[in-house]
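User: Some background: our group keeps a shared notebook of sequences we're curious about, and every so often someone picks one and asks for a predicted structure to add to the entry. Today it's my turn. The entry only has the sequence so far, pasted here. Could you supply the structure so I can complete it?
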Amino acid sequence: MDFGGGPLPRPVESAAFIATFSPGGEHLWSASLSAMSIRVAAIVATEDAVYAGGTFRGRLEFNGDTAIVSEGLSDGFVASWSGDGELRWVRHVSGSDVEQVHGLALLGSNIVVSGSFSGTLLFETPAVPTTGGVDMFVALLDAEGSFRWQRVFGGAGSDVFFDVAVRADDSIVGVGVGGDGWTADGHAFVSAGAGDAVLIGLMSAGGVTTLSAFGSPGYDGIGRVVRSLGGFVAWFDSEGPLRLGSLELPRASVAQSVVVGLGSDGRTVRWATRSNSQPRLGDGHGVVAVGDGLHAGLVGPWLGRTTGGPLGSVDAVIGLLSDDGELVWSRRIGGPGFDRIHAVEPTERGGVYAIVATDGRFEDGDTRLEAIGTFDYVLARYDP
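Assistant: Of course. Here's the predicted structure to add to the notebook entry:
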């Protein structure tokens, strides 16, 4: 794999890559992460550092060098690089069974980490056991990777934090799915179905301030959350039937994807927009706050009436929603095959960067790029 700085070490098994570019698309530096299996779930950055978190199995190597080895079936990790690409530190999130890092957020110079585990969780001695099958966790690391605190929530079922965000007052919001009933600092959670969407508000020191649940007889969860002008924007999956504000979701055999605007209290539904796509919870594609609204990167024919017919088997769509959930504009991206947005990030001037995966020819207006391999990635910038 070559992002422009020369070929990266070829992995023996599977690999993930971190690459940085200038606002004009010039390659700055890149790094490889390889293991028996690996998934980078979240990346956050400051002017001086890049942080990545995810899950691996086997021996995890960074550019073929510094390594950690999983102790359970899979382990989590958080790693940091300097602004010029030097590996600064690696934090091993280990345990006895399955430990996964799903989300990262910046809290000043600290890093908030969210995820899930079964068996035991070892951020810092002693290890913490689960209360049931799978429990959710949120932890705080400082800029050097040192442990500050952690909180664990869950009951006898499956409870997972998929994402985390930080409010303007430095309080924390974690989102995911909750199984059976449990309590968190006196706040009770009771599931209405196979699993309910859950949002937990925490103080910067880890104390729970709010707990909100959104549930139906089916399966419900929140896979992504970002801070917006009016509160939060969350990406829901629901099998219904479920009412979110004025939007009624019917019962369905597969999860329905909904982008929801929540008030700053994490409970009030300000607006909800249904998507035809069916993303898997925890995937990187989602929403990011941009200026007076937010960009939503979605899979498949989302709001198809406004974007015309499909260009290929599956097309990517990027759009701008206002802070009250109204569609401002949308743009379909796609060639003759499968095209999918994996991530979107805002530019400094109100535009957006998008990472698009394609299995054939990437097409957008007059831009056409032929895939080099079986599956390629394209980094594109869209101005306001």
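Suggested note for the entry: The helical segments are 304-307. The CA atoms of residues 106 and 112 lie 6 Å apart.
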